Amino acid sequence: MAIKEVQTTCAYCASGCQIGMVVDTEANKILEAKALDGRTNEGKLCLKGFYGWDYLNDPQILTKRIRKPMIRRNGKSSPLEEVEWDEAIRFVADNLNRIKEEYGADAIMGTASARGPGNEAGYLMQKFIRACVGTNNIDHCARVCHAASVAGCQASIGEGAMSLGVPEIENAEVIFNIGYNAATSHPIVARRIVKAKQKGCKIICIDPRVTETARIADIHLQLKGGTNLALTNAIAHVIIEENLIDPDFIELNTKGFEEYQKVMEKYTPEYAQRICGVPAEDIREAARIYAGSRHSVILWGMGITQFRQGVSVVESCCNLAMMTGNFGRPSTGVGPVRGQNNVQGTCDMGDLPNQYPGYQNVTDHAIREKFEQAWGVKLSDKVGIQLTRVPEFVLEEKDQKKQLHAYYIFGEDPVQSDPHAAEIRATLSKMDFVIVEDCFFSRTSAYADAILPSTAWGEAEGVYTSCDRGFQRVRKCIEPMGDVKTDCEIISLVSTAMGYPMHYESSEEIWNEMIDLCPKFTGATYEKMELYGGVQWPCYSKDLSDKGTPYLHKGGKFAHPDGKGIFIGVEYEEVYEQEENEYPLSLSTVREVGHYSVRTMTGNCRTLRNLEDEPGWVEMNPEDCAEKQLKEGELVWVTSKRGECMTRCKPTDRVKKGSIYMTYQWWIGACNELTIGQLDMQSRTPEYKYCACRVDKIEDQEWAERCVQANYKAIRMEMGIDISQKGGEA
Ligand SMILES: Nc1nc2c(c(=O)[nH]1)N[C@H]1C(S)=C(S)[C@@H](COP(=O)(O)OP(=O)(O)OC[C@H]3O[C@@H](n4cnc5c(=O)[nH]c(N)nc54)[C@H](O)[C@@H]3O)O[C@H]1N2
Ligand SMILES: Nc1nc2c(c(=O)[nH]1)N[C@H]1C(S)=C(S)[C@@H](COP(=O)(O)OP(=O)(O)OC[C@H]3O[C@@H](n4cnc5c(=O)[nH]c(N)nc54)[C@H](O)[C@@H]3O)O[C@H]1N2
Ligand code: SF4
Ligand SMILES: [Mo]
Hints:
Blueprint: E1 3-9, E2 18-24, E3 29-35, H1 47-51, E4 70-71, E5 81-82, H2 85-103, E6 108-111, H3 119-133, E7 138-139, H4 147-157, E8 174-178, H5 182-185, H6 187-198, E9 202-206, H7 212-216, E10 219-221, H8 228-241, H9 247-253, E11 254-255, H10 257-264, H11 269-276, H12 280-291, E12 296-300, H13 302-305, H14 310-323, E13 333-336, H15 343-348, E14 355-356, E15 360-361, H16 365-375, H17 390-396, E16 406-410, H18 414-417, H19 421-430, E17 433-438, E18 450-453, E19 462-465, E20 470-474, H20 487-498, H21 507-515, H22 526-532, E21 535-536, E22 565-566, E23 585-590, H23 606-611, E24 617-620, H24 622-628, E25 635-639, E26 644-651, E27 659-663, E28 691-697, H25 701-718
Helix pairs in contact: 2-20, 3-20, 3-21, 4-14, 8-11, 8-12, 8-14, 11-12, 17-19
Iron/sulfur cluster (SF4) binds at residues 10, 12-13, 15, 17, 41, 45-46, 48-49, 186-188.
């Protein structure tokens, strides 16, 4: 047996953990994963790092690897047939060219992937959409995730990423943790929070649920869901009223404080208490703790961004940090802790409808000219469509010329992960041409007119960006199985076939083209990543002495042209959909620790599947369960105005009476059948964290159990799995 160990970056969350994959090269199999001493993980991994690679063996538990390109030769009603690559690429290129000719380039939309493919493929995808297709209709799942953080931070402090690095968290004196559940989402970041606590850091946790962070917090503000802005405005009110501000910092480094103060006047803690249900004294206490240190760190996640006022709450967090002088030194500042392994990177690469790689605006004439010269084409100056607006441009837009007709879905599974699943299914069914480029059959692949099979993590080379702006290498560990190609190859082939040639010999060649166009990344060469283990952007110079930037806004200089941060004060508004008689409970949707997003990967890892499996759970307060006479483990119906699904009841006093929680990982207990499609109008992020629902008892539990079994079987058959094999029982 010939053994090698390959150093790479984990494929799941954006903690950026370094892993050593031990590979049997003769059998082309991974034997185990070892924890390596990376900058963020210091020789530790979570369960997904240790056990999350089994999908490379294609055990076909939930779904299976796609091993050959597939097309529907004779229109929507014809079956997907396996074909050779040449035919598939021709088919895709001809259809896209046809649609472009008939309706114009803006009728085509593409996504990039924040998962396996890495930054090089992200760069190529937006280049393909912009230079070859000729539109800025490119986006990715940051839209449903941290788009509000990017928009809010860019408006306030000029830069949309975490201002500090993960290691700095453990030296914070105060952690203000809002809408963020690190123990589940980023276990290796959670470790830093625990270490900070051990060093004497005070923790403020703002979450409607009792999370692990809430359990170790010095103060837990268990607010009513959807009321973040009333609460953060009240905290600002107290800091101003009790003169806990840093007047010198405000004077020197910011603008807009006067007007902002006026907006905050009415948000007394007593006023906020009536909205949020948090005692006024606790609000005062939290404000004093936060403002009492110059090493206060704000960490946030989906509990603030996935709301209609996501951007405003992000701005409000930046306001708190600015008014207390909590920027510009180590272990201070703001941390929108990015979710997926490469969602920071996919933003970095310009897979956004308004920005080229390196956060350069498509509407800026000089910037556009730079890219036009580099890519040798004329580029559109029109900001593209955000992916959460695709249903609107397919189902609601009446003018055929303004409709979207083709969707190139690269490494995303909107049928499972976008809100209001019925609407997404209707959208994809109505579209003229849908392309899915993925390594696995997914819920979305059933709607494809062409399927392009790609390599997965572990089968290709590239770079990921961790949540704290750290570029790190990912490496090929094994030879891919089946007739698949790397994502970079696939995009290049489609582009070339459509008449815009792309040829690259290596991922480094793509990387070098990208860094030369992006001043913030210019110094981050493969050589330096090799030498230093990684490089945190901005890194302006290729000189080896420029090792990048651990924390941003040094000395209070913000990333706006005049160096000033901007106070933006906004009034609180209620969520879109309130509880009512027929739907008396509020539903919020969160995550499983052992499973990851749409679960094509973790759902096909034997160890992780054994931890938790279909149809998932709905967490309910024991009082609500008692009212409906529901017991733990019983199957129930959960219903909203948009749909219904079956899942298991889990009584827990971690959630408040009147609110229920589900995780979006399940295909049978699919909570996106229920969620609402309404968006934050600035970032266009959906309000996944609040809608009105009902839970109903199912009298005949045996029938319900049979339903789950039959449903699971049907899903596995739809994914092409031979169900006579063992392994997929729910
Ligand atoms: N209800 C509810 N829904 C949510 C959320 C929520 O909180 N509540 N959260 C939202 C958030 S924050 C996010 S980021 C989204 C995530 O949603 P998605 O982006 O849809 O989910 P992922 O599981 O990250 O990956 C998507 C696809 O990428 C494929 N893939 C993985 N590696 C590769 C590769 O190397 N190449 C290619 N071509 N494909 C690959 C996977 O097989 C999978 O089909 O879900 C959102 N949905
Ligand atoms: N194991 C695992 N890890 C993951 C993922 C996964 O699917 N599985 N997904 C990754 C992705 S894509 C992302 S974006 C990150 C997300 O990671 P997080 O940001 O931690 O996301 P969530 O758990 O969805 O939501 C965070 C918290 O918001 C709280 N919340 C709900 N409503 C409100 C509210 O009104 N106010 C406040 N203050 N809080 C509220 C919830 O109770 C929850 O504890 O995780 C990443 N890591
Ligand atoms: S914390 Fe995140 S990056 Fe680290 S091993 Fe776990 S899933 Fe992978
Ligand atoms: Mo995310």
